[in-house]
Amino acid sequence: MISPESRAQVFNLDKSQLICLPPHERQLSHAGTFDLLADFIGSLQAGQHSGLVLLPLPVNATVQWLDSVRALIDAPLLFAVNSDSVAAQQRIDREFSGERNFDFVLHPFDLEEVRSKAQGLLHRSTMAAYGAGRNELLIYRGYRFQISERRVFHGDQEMYLQPREFDLALELFRNRDCLLSREQLYSLFWRDTVSLRSRALDVCVFKIRRKLNIEPANGLMLRAVFGQGYKLHTVSPMFLR
After folding, report:
1. Which pLDDT band, with edges at 50, 70 and 90, does 52 fall under?
2. N or C: less crowded end of the chain, CB within 10 Å?
């Protein structure tokens, strides 16, 4: 069960507000704080909605505890982890399976890290809501993403991607002809803070390019923009001549 002494902080922020939040900003004017979680639950029952909820992770937190919290709160969850609760975080990471609407921020807490992880959570939440209100289908240049089923086809042939490869490929197709920065992609798809010098993103892009046969003959190119990120280009007919 959730301890009634837990302190909850509620961020009524959307993605655009998070992106525009200045790096030096220390006053979270859009946040409400509850000293007792019971008060927060009462606000939920009264119909108050929030964009993101920040909670301390208890020392004895389990996957079952997490499920009980998620059953109460629809908003994405960001858990603050200190040295006493890091074992609980590792246990949840190891045992939890399924779609995640939560993340962790580790002590000592840094506003930039909080903002980055909150932005990633809200982005995924927005995309999930957007997909739920559509026909769950993205079609472009012969590629077909059946989003709710997490399947992708090129023509009539199914192309098999790992979960993270699917998510990244879908993000690239949704933002075709737009540059996606390395920082943005790491914050979205590598939840545990990974050094931007890591090759994890590059390896994942390489696999997507190979598995989906992304090449000029299929009307697309997936290019690295040096020092910045990746861009899925639509190839013009002139290029194909």
Report:
1. confident
2. C
